[in-house]
Amino acid sequence: MDAPTLEARLSAVAAAVETALDGVLSGEPGPGEIARPARLLDAMRYAMLGGGKRLRPALAVMTGALLAVDPVRSLRAGLAVECVHGYSLIHDDLPSMDDDALRRGRPTLHRAYDEATAILAGDALLTLAFDLLADPATHPDAGVRIALVTALARAAGLGGMVGGQMLDLAAEGRFSDGVAHAQDETAVLRMQSMKTGALIAAPIAMAAELAGAAADERAALSAYASALGAAFQVADDLLDAEGSEAAVGKATGKDAEAGKATLVGLLGPEGARARLAALVDAAVEALTPFGLRAAELQATARFVAERSR
Q1: What residue ranges in 30-180 does DSSP mark as E strands?
Q2: Mind listing the UniProt keywords for this protein, alphabetically (predicted)?
Q3: CATH 3.40.630.30, applies to 3-306
């Protein structure tokens, strides 16, 4: 698949995600809800609408297409992951975490509103994700819905994204002794696989669950997801080290300033670029059993490596 075709596909998915998010973040209370406070809803919409690569829902939709899943179901699973991703960005930007002023070229949510509203908006998006997955509209089989909830909970929580964020903060020396502890490559890879990779792998695994995919299909997709998540993080670290604030849409150079553990710091930019190329090759190779049907996902691995923001 060539780059223009992939870009058109990603744009179409992003538009579908935007429309769906606009619907689930409407002012009308859902069944069992009492009311939706206007300020909180406005903050959630500010954080979630009008921008973002929408890579995670795109992975759900494209994996679903590969496995012949109903696209409505794939999109709903992708929306749930995107809500968790949105919550994580809101909380990461807070003064107690990364203390960022810009996100996607706009003031971060706590700057545009206030810290309390930002915390609550993140909380609400996290719970909304599981509301979406528990709804029969996502899949009529309760067992499948439980499997989706479990997959996302484990990717997002203690042993996944949140745990990875804690390891990242510890590596900066945020806690008791105030000393940043040296991180070898094994520790950095583990932290990044939790902090970033888990939430990239989740929509792929969730689409496989929706499809009732065979064990060999799941194994191939898992290998792809692991390499893709690692590639995404290396590309992100290179953008922070070498990109401009205007192009990236947020402050750059903050990893080195904060003493964050990254492969760019360990391997240097050239070593990181070589690692990125190897990871993309591994991701593409993992999907060989699917033949030409995997062209979208293979092109997405290359897109992740070449992105400029």
Answers
A1: 102-103, 106-107
A2: Isoprene biosynthesis, Magnesium, Metal-binding, Transferase
A3: no
The DSSP code for 290 is G
Domain ranges of the chain: 3-306
pLDDT tens for the chain, residues 1 to 309: 888 899 999 999 999 999 999 999 999 999 999 999 999 999 999 999 987 889 999 999 999 999 999 999 999 999 999 999 999 999 999 999 999 999 988 999 999 999 999 999 999 999 999 999 999 999 999 999 999 999 999 999 999 999 999 999 888 888 876 555 557 889 999 999 999 999 999 999 999 999 999 999 999 999 999 999 999 999 999 998 886 555 555 555 566 565 677 888 899 999 999 999 999 999 999 999 999 999 999 999 999 988 766
Q: How many CB atoms lie within 10 A of CB 144?
A: 18
210's tokens: 């929706």
Within 10 angstroms of residue 10's Cβ, the number of other Cβ atoms is 20
- Calculate the alpha carbon distances from 24 to 31, 50, 70, 172 in Å: 12, 15, 19, 37
| Interacting residues of 128 by C-beta distance below 8 A, sequence separation 6+ | 24, 83
Identity of residue 240:
D
Give me the sign of the Cα torsion angle 140, 9, 17, 43. positive
17-23: long-range contacts, CB 8 A cutoff, minimum separation 24: 17/54, 17/57, 17/58, 17/75, 17/78, 17/79, 17/82, 18/49, 18/50, 18/54, 20/75, 20/76, 20/79, 21/48, 21/49, 21/79, 21/82, 22/49
Count the alpha carbons within 13 Å of 276 in the hemisphere toward its beta carbon. 25
CB 191 within 8 A of CB 168: yes
Whole-structure pTM value: 0.92
Look at the block and give the residue holding tokens 């699917």. 290
Positive or negative CA dihedral for 169, 171, 175, 178?
Answer: negative
